[in-house]
Amino acid sequence: GNSEKDMFGSVVVGIGTAGFVRVRDMLAPLPSSAAEKLSVKGFISRRILEEQQGVKQITVEDALSRDDIKVAFVCTENAAHEENIRMFLEAGKHVCVEYPMAMTHKTAVELWDLAQEKGVVLHEEHIELLTADFKQLKKDVAGKRLEEGFLHFTGGPLKPGFGFPAFSGIARLTWLVDLFGELSVTAASMEEDQQNKYMKMTAQLITKEQKPLTWIEEWAPGLSRAKDINFRFDSCTITQLPPATREPVGIFMQDLVLFSQKLLGQVPRDQLHAERRRVLHCLELADRIQQLSLQGSAQDT
Ligand code: NAD
């Protein structure tokens, strides 16, 4: 069994959709997986809440000072990630943060350096890479030469505190980078109608082989959550996510297992490096897209 001393006591910060799932998954971890080493000790919220799934609310001060709490899950809206990550890293706690870890590339670099200095794990969740659909898409794309690509996401409206669409939509950008390698931004623009909560961001990217990729994030009330893809290759065109059977282990649970493996030192250095590099590259692109979009809209007015 798991003796209490080799367990990673955890706190969940922010009890929204993601926070609820983190509590749920730690209460029933995948049997015989590294996630069994986590035990949820409490949650933190700006609201005063009753017990959640049998777990008690605790104060930030308590979480920071308790020796039996070694891990924080940061599940708040994006705007509050930086402050929470910094606070827990400073206290020597490991941190798992729901994407995106920060609202600028510079901040993410600082946070990662801080984690290294403190000798703790900093992990950014990427459930979008763990879906059966995406895993199949990645297999289908492997070995093909991209000529031109298009990814259009719709959803919304964008919730307050989730930031510029290039950051709130980092999962789509991460897809593109994971499928086609490191990218550059050639142009970006933004259309916004605040009264109607409408937002459309268009980013033009190119691959290392100079092949164009267009990424659009469109958010408005009533838009259903969907992704439209069109990837033209030398040999064929993919216009739909491949059908794939849903896996028995949920995507948040898969991420929890990966994070736990990192805590246990079971993830190879190369993989850790590649992940850090991908995360920072995506945030750097998001930064650039935001800059170019805002420059464009300043010129319009
Ligand atoms: P959410 O809106 O459900 O919750 C976000 C925050 O708002 C939490 O701190 C929560 O405590 C607070 N909150 C929620 N309802 C509230 C209410 N009625 N009154 C006051 N505060 C309230 O957002 P979420 O989907 O859980 O997203 C949290 C983080 O997880 C974000 O960084 C997001 O990018 C990331 N994420 C979410 C998902 C997902 O499937 N939901 C997937 C990947 C990443």
- Topology pattern, helix = H, strand = E: EHEHEHEHEHEHHEEEEEHH
Largest sheet: 6 strands, mixed
Query: What's the total helix number?
Result: 9
Q: Label the overall shape.
A: globular
- What is the CA-CA span between the terminal residues? 65 Å
Number of strands: 11
The distinct ligands, each listed once, are: nicotinamide-adenine-dinucleotide
Amount of beta strand: 15-25%
Provide the low-confidence segments as ranges. Answer: none
Averaged pLDDT: 96
Give Rg in angstroms.
20 Å
Helix coverage percent of residues? 25-40%
Overall structural class, as computed from helix and strand content, comes to alpha/beta
Order of strands in the sheet with the most strands?
A: 7-8-9-6-10-11
InterPro entries: Biliverdin_Rdtase_cat, Gfo/Idh/MocA-like_OxRdtase_N, Gfo/Idh/MocA_Oxidoreductases, NAD(P)-bd_dom_sf
Protein name: Biliverdin reductase A
Pfam families: Biliv-reduc_cat (PF09166), GFO_IDH_MocA (PF01408)
GO molecular function: biliverdin reductase [NAD(P)H] activity; nucleotide binding; zinc ion binding
Question: Any chance you could write out the topology, listing elements then pairs?
Answer:
Elements: E1 8-13, H1 17-27, E2 38-44, H2 60-65, E3 71-74, H3 81-90, E4 94-98, H4 105-118, E5 122-125, H5 132-141, E6 146-155, H6 165-168, H7 170-180, E7 183-193, E8 198-207, E9 212-219, E10 226-233, E11 237-238, H8 251-263, H9 269-300
Parallel strand pairs: 1-2, 1-3, 3-4, 4-5, 6-9
Antiparallel strand pairs: 6-10, 7-8, 8-9, 10-11
